[in-house]
From TrEMBL:
SUPFAM superfamilies: Protein kinase-like (PK-like). InterPro entries: Aminoglycoside_PTrfase, CcrZ_PhaseVar_Mediator, Kinase-like_dom_sf. It comes from the Bacteria. Coiled coil: none annotated. Residues 14-217 form the Aminoglycoside phosphotransferase domain. Keywords: Transferase. This is Phosphotransferase. It holds the Pfam family APH. One of its GO terms (molecular function) is transferase activity.
Length: 266
């Protein structure tokens, strides 16, 4: 990365799941760099959803490097996820026709519950490595039984990982949602289900969803449960395949809490 910016820049890895992100700084200037970020980033920047995109460069080998503002700030704490501004920003994302049009142009087609279930069942051997895994088999049975009931014809841009550490609050009090590598076109219940089940007390769901801009009904609740369970399984699979067994176990405990709260297991 130094050869792109010049010798006076210091570049350090920024961590993350892809290993393709870096912090760069020189006197008076700081940037966040990423290799082969999606063209979707430009629209996210224009919408004010991620920190400002400063420049994009294509290298001779075909790689694309993007540079964003490196902002002073912090990730949200779990207890801050019930703030109205979180609901408002997620609503802005889900209702943006510009984001949806761009992601569709990039070849993202609406993700259906049937495809979600197929992906999980295709990798069930990975899930069966989780010990204990009684919750896994119960969860897959639950998804199979309800898949026909959660099909939905309204699709939006979903972030697909609304974990609190992906919400950045800048020193200027601007809220951003970062790390869009796994974005999909899907039922908004995919984002809503995992976020509410993970962070929002049940007695505050209606108020949170009103801040988001909808009056919930039973169909939405059922779709949110289905996607909370399916996303939990998908994350368990992902961490297992990466050898991140502690994180997989943490996701299994979250799955257990969701299914216990919803009466899927006792």
């Amino acid at each position: 990365m130094e050869h792109i910016l010049g010798n006076n820049w210091t570049v350090t890895p920024a961590g993350g799941s892809t290993g393709e992100a870096y912090y760069a700084q020189t006197e008076g200037k700081r940037l966040f760099l990423k290799r082969n970020s999606s063209p979707f980033l430009a629209v996210l920047s224009a919408e004010g959803i991620v920190p400002k995109l400063v420049w994009t460069k294509r290298l001779e080998n075909g790689d694309v490097i993007t540079a964003q503002e490196w902002l002073e700030g912090r990730e949200l704490q779990p207890e801050e996820m019930d703030y109205p501004r979180v609901a408002a920003l997620l609503s802005k994302i889900h209702h943006s026709t510009e984001l949806l049009d761009m992601l569709m142009r990039l070849g993202k087609h609406p993700l259906t519950p049937d495809e979600v279930l197929k992906d999980i069942k295709d990798n069930q051997t990975v899930l069966n490595q989780v010990d204990p895994h009684m919750e896994v088999s119960v969860a897959i049975d639950f998804l199979q039984q309800r898949v026909q009931d959660v099909r939905h014809d309204k699709h939006v841009v979903c972030h697909c990982d609304t974990n609190h550490n992906n919400w950045l609050l800048s020193a200027e009090d601007q809220l951003y949602l970062i790390d869009w590598d796994n974005a999909m076109v899907a039922d908004p219940a995919l984002d809503l289900g995992m976020l509410l089940h993970s962070y929002i007390p049940l007695d505050k769901w209606d108020d949170w969803l009103k801040e988001y801009g909808i009056i919930p009904d039973e169909n939405l609740y059922q779709r949110m449960i289905w996607y909370a369970v399916s996303q939990s399984l998908a994350f368990i699979q992902w961490h297992q395949m990466r050898g991140e067994y502690d994180e997989a176990a943490l996701r299994l405990r979250k799955l257990n809490r969701v299914m216990t709260r919803e009466g899927i297991i006792e």
